[in-house]
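User: Design a sequence. Structure:
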């Protein structure tokens, strides 16, 4: 059983389903509204837990109704929340998500996530030292992300840095990450590129190994030499929210099997996740993933 530590955000997703995206200034009648647990950190923690990993979450929620619900939901998914703090001074993070035609638009309000600290990361050092992989994203303060990456390198535990939402990152500490897992837009932003450079060239320029997601096309990955391609899996798309988080959670869980195997299983898990509604709602169990891969053997 893989041991995973996730350092990241915990949000309540406020999801609205509409027939199409409204234009600026337009009022549009929605089809459905629901609240579901989210946040890139929590999503990746749940994805890893459902795939059979022992998962510890390092994060923060507010002392409010959302915070209580979010923390309880993680525990019910089997995630250890010992290192999730409850803040009295701010509310829990939220993400307002509009879903239309199989795609989504998202606005995130960090709330308590803006107060996840490097001190919390250091407090989890013993767990990180014993972990098979650490996941961290960019919905928490940058100094906390940096502290996580540096600690992982110091104790020789692979840190998977998912740079979303993307921003330019210092190459010096970016090089400390074991893997960077952007999409094409995020990779360009991280490296300060205008966005007109071929993604494979950007992968070669990155100061650390890159696993780049390409939606339905699958993923490209590079440790040394030329980037390699893992094809995607054809499925009926219902909601793409959380697909990237599912990919990252699965990548961490199966990393012990080698990068090639981990990327293939991560692509399959992400494909399964888009067949159901909600960031966490579509995340597969290990049995579901193995059955799916078995049905696509040789594909």
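Assistant: Done.
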């Amino acid at each position: 059983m893989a041991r995973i530590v996730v350092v990241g955000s915990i949000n309540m997703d406020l999801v609205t389903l509409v027939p199409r995206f409204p234009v600026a200034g337009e009022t549009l009648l929605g089809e459905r509204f629901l609240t579901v647990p989210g946040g890139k950190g929590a999503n990746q923690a749940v994805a890893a837990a459902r795939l059979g990993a022992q998962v510890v979450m390092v994060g923060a929620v507010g002392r409010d109704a959302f915070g209580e619900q979010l923390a309880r939901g993680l525990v019910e998914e089997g995630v250890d929340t010992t290192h999730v703090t409850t803040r009295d001074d701010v509310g829990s993070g939220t993400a307002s998500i509009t879903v239309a035609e199989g795609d989504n638009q998202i606005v995130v309000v960090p709330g308590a996530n803006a107060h996840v600290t490097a001190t919390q990361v250091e407090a989890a050092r013993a767990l990180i030292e014993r972990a098979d992989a650490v996941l961290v994203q960019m919905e928490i303060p940058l100094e906390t992300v940096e502290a996580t990456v540096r600690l992982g390198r110091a104790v020789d535990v692979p840190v998977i840095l998912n740079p979303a939402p993307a921003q330019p990152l210092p190459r010096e500490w970016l090089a400390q990450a074991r893997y960077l897992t952007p999409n094409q837009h995020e990779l360009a932003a991280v490296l300060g590129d205008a966005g007109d450079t071929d993604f494979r060239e950007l992968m070669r320029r990155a100061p650390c190994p890159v696993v780049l997601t390409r939606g339905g096309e699958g993923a490209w990955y590079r440790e040394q030499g030329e980037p390699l391609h893992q094809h995607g899996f054809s499925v009926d798309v219902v909601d793409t929210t959380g697909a990237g988080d599912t990919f990252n959670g699965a990548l961490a869980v199966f990393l012990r099997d080698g990068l090639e195997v981990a990327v293939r299983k991560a692509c399959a898990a992400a494909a399964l996740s888009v067949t159901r509604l909600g960031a966490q709602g579509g995340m597969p169990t290990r049995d579901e993933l193995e059955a799916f891969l078995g049905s696509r053997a040789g594909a």
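The chain has a mean pLDDT of 94. The chain has one domain: 3-18+33-295.
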